[in-house]
């Protein structure tokens, strides 16, 4: 299976170490906006071709799979070009700049009859799979509400980010809502079904910034905080608060409250706790068997990518649909929720994702 990669940073951290454990996968080329980054990744992982021109890379090679890990503004054009070139596509989150682009990606994948996946790797994490199974089996009873908080301090200092940082640039698709909120929305849709109503906002708390190296002033235009409430079609309510500008790093915590029990999961130690109604919490953690594989970077994100890529590779090799994972259809549904959060923040009202244009 011939693999091409567009984007070197996350690829070096996660894709390339994971692909070393995917049977039959051969990475033949990598492209990055900075050629030195592409060449550094190629040298580190024995990739024969490296370039700064992703379009030329797609023209020069016949890929079975193209993995896209670039700023959000590039997702749609790169995915469309890869599909046109005949490749199956794995694309990073958030899906696209808006639901219109996400819809174009889905339609192109359908026309090309190519497999497609958005890299919401938490779907392949054993703990979160356990939660999905418990909800589906009714072990928690009726799900009434979910609380998720993701609080970090990485962007709190105005001098913590370099000028031009794409994560802080709305024109490039940066911001906490897309960076982390997209994962949380996908997880909730996976566990609970579709979203009926949305209210929330994605503001910029620390717009005035200084370059971390030179001290030169610059202005952030992408959200560093996002908060929103989702009313699911099931009737369950989910509340999420995401921040990159807290004074202290609290991490990510998830609580699922059902009529028959409660789930608690904290990424500080990735321990999964369950308490039946009237009972005490007990540890029901499921360890990821891939965590001990050589060469992987630590953390749930880097480890879970192994199973995501194995499923993508197996589906391609066996000529079958994906058995697991978030597809471009999921990506479009997810993008409609993110767009609804932004619209809600602008207009100060509840929004139905189904009313978002795509």
Automatic annotation (TrEMBL):
GO molecular function, one term: oxidoreductase activity
Source organism superkingdom: Bacteria
Originating species: Paracoccus suum
PANTHER family in alphabetical order: BCDNA.GH03377 (PTHR43818)
Keywords: Oxidoreductase
Official protein name in the record: Gfo/Idh/MocA family oxidoreductase
Signal peptide, first to last residue: none
Lineage summary: Bacteria, Pseudomonadati, Pseudomonadota, Alphaproteobacteria, Rhodobacterales
Gene3D superfamilies assigned to the protein according to its UniProt record, in alphabetical order: Dihydrodipicolinate Reductase, domain 2, NAD(P)-binding Rossmann-like Domain
One Pfam family hit: GFO_IDH_MocA
Residues covered by the Gfo/Idh/MocA-like oxidoreductase N-terminal domain: 1-119
Domain GFO/IDH/MocA-like oxidoreductase: 129-264
